[in-house]
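pls ignore typos typing on phone
flavin-adenine dinucleotide + seq
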Amino acid sequence: MMSKKLYNCIIIGGGPAGARAAYELSKKTKNIALIDYRESLGDKLCTGIIGTECVEKYGIDKNLIFSEGNSADITNPGKKTFYLESKEPKAYIIDRIKYVQNIIQKAKANNTEILYKSRVTDISFSKNDAKITFKSQGIEKEILTKSIILASGLENKLINKLNINSIKNENILNGSQLTMSYDTTPQIENTKVFLGSKFGFQGFGWIVPTKKNEILIGVLTKDKSRKILIQFISELKNEFRLENIIEKNIKTWGIPIQPLEKTYAERTLVIGDAAGLVKPVTGGGIYYSQISAELAAETIEKAIIENDFSEKSFSAYQKNWKNLIGGEILKGNKLRDILFGFEDKKLNHLTKFTFSNSIISNILISKSSSFDNHFKSFLNFINNESIINIFTKSKSSEIKELIPNLKKKIF
Ligand SMILES: Cc1cc2nc3c(=O)[nH]c(=O)nc-3n(C[C@H](O)[C@H](O)[C@H](O)COP(=O)(O)OP(=O)(O)OC[C@H]3O[C@@H](n4cnc5c(N)ncnc54)[C@H](O)[C@@H]3O)c2cc1C
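k done
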């Protein structure tokens, strides 16, 4: 079944990337549609933590924020816990599903068509348009469009239709998470991060409070996260009086931490997770999904005005995201390798030295450290004179040589 209408742009995927792209584009042009196979948009595995920069830039309704993240407990492999607290929030724990749906509603109010429960199965191109084939309630349908924004997340089978190499498995982190109830007083009020080799290669674990008596417990690793999560929860069970694990409720999903070599093709731009645009250290992708969506909307607007949907003109999109976040992603990957490369014994030593020192802790929670720019924050840290002084004066050779060693590895 082919509709005769020619759309200006079809957005495939209605997660944070697709939702933002639809909204930004709906402010600039008409005849756009968003297609997603889900009924409940935004309902994909995620912890829902975004940094303050993301909130300042893109806004969020206050009622979609579960809590402000201005403190965290960090537990090292030796089970010693350090408490960090900043005056201003560094991040927000948000209701991710409602966040996405709120953006979708704004796009809808600007006349974007939203096609729910519709899975795109094919994309093909001709001289004057692109054809999108999708299945909705068992019926195959086709629509024509001048341009496509591919925001399909990690389910990147459609990338193959664009002659773009997909993201290699070694560049995909594996995350598992479970929403759990607990029964302790006082309530768990801050985020808890757990480090160490028990979380697998380059892995870490977390507890994030959302609603009253409810937490998210998760693991992100380059190994198999599900098994590690089950073990992790069983260790925490007594401490927080957690409900019994219902294994089938554990959700697992991947996070790409290296971008595609090419995030554009004729008539098509790739954004968000589909393009591999994620903060590599934590695996947080919401902020970069918003940035890439906004840049894609600008590129499409220009293409519509100039009637130029060529690969050459779309290459500007890649230049633009590289200018804004390319350096952070590239260096962030190196930083991830370094930070998650310490053996447990060394990590115990380093965390004890770092977090027990009030000057270092204060710098870590100061404005020079941002949840949105990990590499920039790391640079601020290793170039801070007080930090250099404290580390250089240490009697431990491991600590003394840490900053010069880090500099050697990162540059
Ligand atoms: C365990 C875990 C925890 C995380 N925690 C955080 C966090 O705290 N903070 C953070 O910033 N990031 C976090 N992330 C990452 C974050 O969830 C992603 O980076 C973000 O969702 C990317 O948005 P997206 O719109 O690009 O992709 P997605 O959210 O994956 O959306 C893609 C959409 O495309 C649709 N789709 C796919 N294929 C098709 C098709 N063929 N036809 C139609 N529709 C299709 C899907 O249904 C989906 O709705 C986490 C990820 C995991 C796995």
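The two ends are 55 Å apart (CA to CA). Residues 311-339 form the longest helix (29 residues). more later
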